[in-house]
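Continuing from the previous page...

OK, I double-checked the sequence for SD-repeat containing protein B domain-containing protein against my notes and this is the correct one:
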Amino acid sequence: MVHFQALAASVGGYVYCDKNQNGSYDIGEGLQVPGLEVKFFRKNSDELITSTTTDHTGKYITESVPDNTDIDVKVVYQNATYLATDLSSLSAAHIKVICTSTSCGEAPVVSVNKEGDLSCDQNAIKITASATPSEGANYDWVIPNGADDPGDTDSFFASIAGVYTVTVKYSLNDCIASNSVTVTRDETECCLTISDPAPTDLKAICEGESVNFSVKTDPPPPVEIGWVRFDSEVDDPYTAEGNGKTYLGSAKPSGGFASVASNDFPAVAGSVKTYYVYACFKYASPYCKGFVKYQVDVLKPKVRAMGGSFSCPITSAQLTATGTPEAGVVSSYAWTGPAGFTSDSQNPLVTAAGDYEVTYSVTKGEKTCTVSDTAIIDCCPVGICVPLVIHRTRSGK
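Thanks. Re-ran it with the corrected sequence; updated structure tokens here:
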């Protein structure tokens, strides 16, 4: 029983959760049961003197109890009535209530805000959660893959795009509240540009020649450019594997430009071998995969010349030549021989014995590659000639 000796007394305390229902306050049980009406009655009666409501921390206080009044302090919580069991100290008239997982009083609320989005100029943004009530709130975050776990905090900086979800939990009454925010990144804005400063549809070379590859980045970034070769076109040179993938080299831009030269382009005799080369950012982010593509055609012509043995005197003998490749190129034959003989026919007729050289030329774009072979026309006495086909080969460019 409490008896007040002043005109008015200040009575206050906390309504707290007796979570383990042992009748006493234990460490870890907390004090917060907000939004409950606390009523003050005359002792052992139903006469209501005054009432108040617990704040967001579970605290209540009144100064409206009159002098010389014995009181009971009660709360009704989930259809059960609880009394302050110890009123010897009016400033600590705590009330124990039995809490369950649904004992939330006024339901908590949490909001999540972000300060903008990620961009080329903004590599991290602040995310802030605001919980009501704030006291006793614990923050548990679900974050995108690759992001750093912020831990139990209401604010942190995010550098990875995705959905950030917070769940606020209150240890004293098992109440929870959740909310989320989506962080986006402008992928195109953040990407550095990469281009060919001297673009051409084709880089044609002869076997063994070197090709120079150049790129321009704007603005000049502190990055490194790598060049990789494939046997055929690929959609994403950053992730493509197989297909003859060969690393050709790398370079760091200087003044916004970077270049590398390579002759690592194996030729195939008698054909045009096509390669595709890609210039890529060597350490690209998931958002920036710009590249420059080049086509390299390696020309390696092949020719076979044939002559023979003919009865003397030679009145007419035919030289023959067969050159490859023929498709996709402009090709030509040029013969030279004894006594100043020349011809641009593929299979010319001659009237003199001797060595005849044919040069086979193939041109693609502005590049011409050549190869040569020699055929022998031999003269033998009538009646003793043995059919003979003779050729000698000499390569060229």
